[in-house]
Amino acid sequence: MSADRTSPADHPGPGSRTDPPGRPAYGFPRRGWALLAEHPPPGARGVDGRWRSPLRGPWLTSVYGLVLLVGLPLVFLTGLLDYLAYGPQFGQAFPRDVGWLRLPPFDWPTRPSWLFRVTQGLHVTVGITLIPVVLGKLWSVIPKLFDWPPARSVAQLLERLSLLLLVGGILFEIATGLLDIQYAYLFGFDFYTAHYFGAWVFVAALVTHVALKLRRMLTALRSRPVRAELTVPRDATRPEPPDPDGLVAARPGPATVSRRGALALVGGLSLLLAGLTVGQTLDGRWRRTALLLPRGRQPGTGPTGFPVNRTAAAAGIGAADTGAGWRLTLRADGRQATLDRAALLAMPQHTARLPIACVEGWSTLQTWTGVRLRDLAALVGAGALGSAHVRSLEKAGLFAQATLQANQVLDPDSLLALRVNGVDLTPDHGFPARVIVPALPGVHCTKWVSEIEFRGRTDA
């Protein structure tokens, strides 16, 4: 954005500050903060003089901060909604035990049918789109990361600690989120647990930081009209007046880019990332543009050429498991029924056009045909329905089984799907039968279903 060029001699080091005789340095006894200032670590002396870009200052930092203040809460809130969509009341949202961070009980709705598609799509797409803004914001304040001493009062120490959690939290969430999307599990720890608690740590730091800095941010934004600043060329770019936070360079050098150029660079990179991401939520030719999301790209052509997260081979499902000997077992209140695929096809069939959306952010809209779940419940005489527990032929894995809420079972478009887009399901798409429920996370639309147990209400 602008080169930071200088030599250490151009600017006095942190240990060079002097105070009037008899006046304690920084308002504290000299044995306190001033003692730290007089003994900087190796390499710290004069480091603040190496940052000379005239672009840095409260205004540019506040512009980036305003964008993040709008975008990051949206990412956090959609993440919480997605956590609720997994049904934490059944112990199938991860992490299972969140202590006092437990969210209020909530039955995830089935309408609109695209609800999870939108919340998870926004969570991933907005999160990726904001990465250049986060990096731009960090660039604008990077000299402050090298301040020595790191704090000159207790209040400033608390502020720096909140900033450490803020910066560390957002970088941790971005890094782990991107690796999860790419299916690159390099963590050495449980991603779901770390991502959930990491988000709360970040939000707590964000709230603290906003409370401390909001007034200064608003003052900085009012200091320069955006329209006027966007007309200033590089040659006319001048540093802002000195500020209390020390963001403005003490000895600014010449600008190598204007503030307009800096904003255009960050905005352009954000638009590029959005363009390479949003295609995973769209069908047809647009899905080919999802270059950053391998799971969201179209894997083939024809009626079953849409994405899958887990293939039959990866799940250990073979032809012997899904052949003529396959049976579906239905249970309710001690009663049981066993059906083969021919019996299911002989029942009344219902067709619904429903999306299926994945935690990685991809989604697709397809036409499914099968037996309504509520018809299967009626077949075994399920009474006051509380939930349904669905088991897969898959022997292991986090999502080899799922529990559905009563409203999800009773929705008229909730299906045990046997066909998709007019053809039989393929093994990768869950043949011989899979669950499809409006607004349900894709991993809970269980494939290769072997058993459904309809359970009554606990208060019945």
TrEMBL record:
It holds the Pfam family Oxidored_molyb. One of its GO terms (molecular function) is oxidoreductase activity. The chain crosses the membrane at residues 59-81, 121-142, 163-185, 191-212, 261-279. Residues 1-24 are annotated as: Disordered. Residues 324-455 form the Oxidoreductase molybdopterin-binding domain. It comes from Micromonospora kangleipakensis. GO terms for biological process: respiratory electron transport chain. Keywords: Membrane, Transmembrane, Transmembrane helix. The lineage of its organism: Bacteria, Bacillati, Actinomycetota, Actinomycetes, Micromonosporales. The keyword Transmembrane helix applies. GO terms for cellular component: membrane. InterPro entries: Di-haem_cyt_TM, Mopterin_OxRdtase_euk, OxRdtase_Mopterin-bd_dom, OxRdtase_Mopterin-bd_sf. This is Molybdopterin-dependent oxidoreductase-like protein. It comes from the Bacteria.
